[in-house]
Structure formats: structure tokens, C-alpha cells
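notes to self, project folder thing:

trying the whole complex as one job this time. last attempt i did each chain seperately and stitching them together was a nightmare. two parts in total, labels are on each line so i dont mix them up again. if this works i'll redo the older ones the same way
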Amino acid sequence: MKLIVIAGPPSAGKTAVVRQIVRNLQATAAIAYLKIDVVRAFEDEELRKEFGIPARKVYSGDLCPDHAGIMVMRDAIAWAAGEGADILIVESAGLCLRCSPYLTQSLGIVVISAVSGTHAPLKMGPMIALADVAVVTRIDLVSQAEKEVFRERILEVAPGIEIVETNALQGTGMRYLIRRIEETGDIEDEDTIEVRGVPPLGVCTICVGKKEIGWQRHFGVVRKLDGADWIFRGE
Amino acid sequence: MYPEITEITVLPGRDKNGMQETFDRIVIRPGETLSIVGPTGSGKSALIGDIEIFAREDTATGRTVLVNGGMPPEDLVRDPSKKPVALITQNTKCLADLSVQEFLSMHVRSRRIEREGIVAETIALANEFTGEEITAGARMTALSGGQTRSLMVADAITIGNTPIIILDEVENAGIFKHRVIETLRAYGKAVIFVTHDPLVSLMCDRRIVMRNGTVAKIIERDGEEEKALAAIRKMDGILSALRERIRAGESITEAAFAS
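result (full assembly):
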């Protein structure tokens, strides 16, 4: 099974990119989808309804969403394998630019909107720097010159990154992303999957830099994939 | 900088009902001007979209666009600094929170251009297209629609140096369309206008008529429309003069039509 992790700031078009991936690959691969969000998310219901794929979500509530993602990842891989999936797509909430949710043995995709401003890529650090592919959305709304400048900014942060420009609603240019997914290898050994970057310093097991995935290997506030229906209501 | 682009070819796809398009192929060469006309929703934007991204049966229309008769090399399609097409749309906005000078300098850097004075040259050229002066220190986000478009056309000519320029309804938002057309011709660019403007469309070598998502007709300029073009030029001159007088706050009386 292939693992694909999609990150990017809110409203960048992550789910539109997921839709295009499913639309393009559904005929040849069984796809499972997991959305990680903080408070409310609807993407799982929408994708299940639209494509009939196994889809679920996990709310991080009082945890940071990347923390929640790391906690549930082993469960999620087991769940997707149990569903017979060839590809598991994990979409992050995309809130923290300091953490980045990309894992080893997976394809890391960052989605950035072309209209988010010239400096946006510079502000996003690890979320761009540790990804394999940057998908730039809403490319139809900016000028040629701005496209070039935006691309240059992304390359400043991540010189080796592959850039795919798209109008994700229509799926233009997505053939390059689809090809990259097709070329991505399966998970080799799920016991050795790690977070690519070192998480920030802090007090929780993730925040102090424990890179193992799965709640079994952590202590303190843990979260399983099942029973994730707590909603964060603030202090 | 580019492999020489000798032609761009559009191969047919399907109309809105999924029927095969009836044209054989549309070939566009540097120095040619082409207009795309048709009612709203007839497929004009989809056609220029196909050309802009070099469709390969992967857009809603199913068309394919070739460069020099073959599939374009991948970096020519994917790297915008190598792409031979610049599209300037009617909703081209510049969201970069930078001054004109900074933005153009950044574009120059991204293209690894070392010629001095190119930024000033671009601004000067843009100012030939628009009546409202663009200054180097102005914020990009504060430019009007006409200024932004004028600057983007100038940028595509000088910094981008793209052989093909697509202008989507350039006639809107106060831009001197004559001067744009003449300048683009002088620079040997292939230019595609999406337009509702009689003058712009009649000035072009060919006119593609869109209907129901498909190319319905291609009209070659064969001289029969010359008289009409001359008449429209005259009318356009009158209207332009009127526009300037209204802008200047004059009252328009019968005498205004005499010239």
C-alpha cells in the first residue's frame, strides 16, 4: 500500500487535489482516505458519497492536529489495509507550519494557493521544505509573471521540490502529480515509518521529539483512531 | 532562450455534447494575430485555457496542443519561465504585496536576466499602453485593472519574452488597444485576442468563431472586410476622442461629432 500525506494551509485546495487524485486513480487503485482536523470536518462524508471510497476523519480536539495524526497513523494504515486499499491518502488540517506531517516511506504533498501572496512560501518553512511535491492551486487567477515569481519563492525554500501547477477544480496539470503518485513505492515496513522532520521542542511526547508513530509508543495524552468523536470546545 | 517556436497547433476535441469537433487543426505562427469571438459560454476561455496549458486530452474539451508539430518537452510546459505562452486574462490581478520595481526585479531574477535597465524599459512600455501613469514605486496591489494589464503585457514582451501572448478581453479597463496590437506585431509575437470588440477582431488575420463549446467557423481576413474595418477605425477614433473629452470633464455637444 502507498501512503500519501497531504498538507497545506487551510483553504489552499487540499481536498480539491484529493478529489482529482481519486478521480484519476480510482479505476486502477483502491483508495482509502483519512482527514485529520481539529474541530469539524466534512471531507470524509463528501468523498465517501462522491466516490464510494472508505473514508474517515479524526478530530484532534485539544491536541495539535499533527500530533493527532502521528498518534493515529499506525491504526490508520491497519484500517486502510483492512479495507483492501492500495493507496491511503491522509489529509492534514494544515494548521501548523512549524511541524510538518510528512512521513518516511510516503509521498509528501504540500498544497499552496497561488493567490496566497508572494511571501507565503517563505513563511511556511518545514511544511514546504520537507515535502516531495508542491501543488500550486488557483493558477488561473494570477499572471504569468506572478506564477514565475511564486515558483521561484518555493524553490528558495525547497530547491529540489517538484512543482505542479493546477487549477485543481478542473484538474489541469494534474497528470504530473498522478504520475508521481504512480511512481511512489509501497510502504516497506510500517514499523519503521518515521516523521521526516524533528517536531518542535515542547512537553508532550511528540513535542519532545519522539518520532515513532502509534499511540502504543507514547504516553500522556494519547488518541486512538476509534473513539475520536470528542469535539474541542475551548477552555 | 527558447527552442525556436515555429508553430503551435490545436487539434480538435469534443463540443459540449461530446461530439467530435469539425475543424481539422488550427496552426498559429509568430507574427500572426488571431481573435476568438462568440457569445458568453461558447467556449472561448476553454480554448485559450487549452492553449495556455498545452492540453493533452486532459481538459474538459479533450483537445491536444502541439508545439512545432509534436508534443512539447515537459519543462516547456511545466516551468513557467520556459513556457512560450503568456496569458493575460481579464481577471489578471497582482496579489504580490510589492512595489512595481520590486516585483519586476524579482521576475527578472527568476529568469536569470542580466541586462540592465530592463525594469525601467518594461515600465516605460507599459506606460505606452495606458493613460494612467505607472510609477516604479507604486504598489502592485494598488494598480488599476488597466495599469495591471498594461504592465503584464509589457512584462510578457520584455522580461518574459514569450513568443505567444494571449489577451483575454484586453479592450476593457482603459488600455490603448491599437498601440498594444501594433507593438505586439512589431515585436513579432503571435497574439491571440479573446474579444467582443469589433475593431480588435477585425484587425486580426483570422477570427475563430466559437459556439456551444466548439470552433464553429474560422474566418480568414481576405480583404472583403477592409471597408468595414476602415469605417470601424473611424468610429473608434470618434469614440476614443469622446472618451477623452468626457474624462476631461467637457460637455459633449453636436460639435464633438464633427471631427
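what i see at first glance: The radius of gyration of chain A is 17 Å.
need to look closer tmrw
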